[in-house]
Amino acid sequence: MDYSALAELLYPEITETREQMEAKFPPRQLPEGAKVTRMAPSPTGFMHLGNLYGAIADERLAHQSGGVFMLRIEDTDQKREVPGAVGIILDVFDHYQLRFDEGVTRQGEQGAYGPYRQRQRARIYQTFAKWLVQQGKAYPCFCTEEELAAMRERQAAEKANFGYYGKWAVWRDRPLEEVKARLDAGEAFVLRFRSTGDPEKRVKFTDLVKGAMEFPENDQDVVLLKSDGIPTYHFAHVIDDHLMGTTHVVRGEEWLATLPVHVQLFQAMGWKLPKFVHTAQLMKMDGGHKRKLSKRKDPELGLEFYQRQGYCVAAVKEYLLTLLNSNFEDWRLQNPDAPLEEFPFTTKKMGNSGALFDLEKFNDVSKNVISRMDAQQVYGLLTAWAKEFDPDFYALLTRSPEYTMGILSLGRGGKKPRKDIASWSGAKEYMAFFFDELFTPAAPDPEERLTPAQQKAILEGYLPLYDPADDNGQWFEKVKALAAQLGYATDMRAYKKDPAAWPGSVAEVSGVLRMAITGRKNSPDLCDIMKLLGPGRSLERLRRAAENL
Ligand code: GLU
């Protein structure tokens, strides 16, 4: 077979040689050890936690080493493409403050290794495809869908492996004339790789996360270019990652299955393999079992969820880093205030089996992150979220910024800041009692150990004592005096020794006041809260609670 003639027949319009094309993408001049990574999403309109998880690894590896982080749009599958999807991808990068150095931006493309949208690289792929045909490493296949389906049926009947390989690779060695006749008849073809792999033999391979691995060689003649001349993922990524100088391919472990194909393609091109970092799947516990996060069942998989619920960027990134690197949490304990960028991220500390995403743990991380912010910062983020997602709450928060700042300052700062807020939507519930529009007085608590009469006595006894000028010490002295007067224990040590000797302690007494004012058992310092609410509203709530008993 004259492979050059075949190549000419298939791709007459491709005039550049492989060498000329490669010369357009010269090796990068980067310092020793600099890593080049890329985030390569498909524009399907759905950005999920796994995308962000990988992007953080990409970004850290590149920027920590003085390298380059690219955004490449993998739009080869037109059927899955959704209008506006690239905008959604760019929004995610903006929102999570992941700065990329090259790729698709809102202002067009940036960088010398583009185009960065795969469909615009069709000529590039075809140039290398033509070269493969010239080498006898690729060939056209004119099988129709029906023929492939029929082949599948025969394979099932013979209990043979499915696919296009060996004797089933019916277009492997057809004569040039037959190809010409089909082309003249205007028939469509796909370009297939001529695999020389033998599944009895093993390919050895080292992944930076999974370690040393072995697979049977691939014997399938996979499709390189589809009938519209657009490549499959397999071919496109090999060409792109080589030309763009990617040093580390970070991608989901679902690609491990086709890694033998990719290794084969790099070898067929005579190119060095990049380093591969196959990231663990994100899992969750469900009824005692670990399972993959699912788009259908788990809203927390979609990145939109975090924006809508009002989780802050720093918290999401911080939690994903705890999943990405096993030593991150220890580092955070030692460096509570350091920016994330100071953490020495490494592929060595990445887990090689499913990363467990635990919403409760994430909330704890988020509470910690927010507890370290100052009130001004919280105010800015909270109101920005509310403006977009909860306009009524926004109106309350901004009615008196000073008042809201006062609320947000409670229990903040110091060695042990309070950790009440995990998300901005959750902040609404936490802050509700500060706003009459949102405050709902507590319903009677069946667990309350004091009788309604005892509670009433506390509330009524306290009313004449309250003086807004009191400081926290004076405030508490008065509560204590009232407790003593009503026969409650004020010496906690004595009380703990013999709780039955009193109807309760000063803690129960202040608990009744707290419930009346805030509607909850746990709150920041009650004296501070009453000061913020002001004497009018505080006394009114105490009175109303007493009346309702
Ligand atoms: N477009 C592929 C995906 O979205 C990218 C895989 C890769 O990073 O190579 O899964």
From TrEMBL:
Keywords: Aminoacyl-tRNA synthetase, ATP-binding, Cytoplasm, Ligase, Nucleotide-binding, Protein biosynthesis
Record family assignment: Belongs to the class-I aminoacyl-tRNA synthetase family. Glutamate--tRNA ligase type 1 subfamily.
GO molecular function: ATP binding; glutamate-tRNA ligase activity; tRNA binding
Protein name: Glutamate--tRNA ligase
Function comment: Catalyzes the attachment of glutamate to tRNA(Glu) in a two-step reaction: glutamate is first activated by ATP to form Glu-AMP and then transferred to the acceptor end of tRNA(Glu).
Cell compartments where the protein resides: Cytoplasm
Motif, 'HIGH' region: chain positions: 41-51
Every Glutamyl/glutaminyl-tRNA synthetase class Ib catalytic domain range: 36-322
UniProt-listed Enzyme Commission number(s): 6.1.1.17
GO cellular component terms, semicolon-separated: cytosol
Record-annotated Aminoacyl-tRNA synthetase class I anticodon-binding domain positions: 512-545
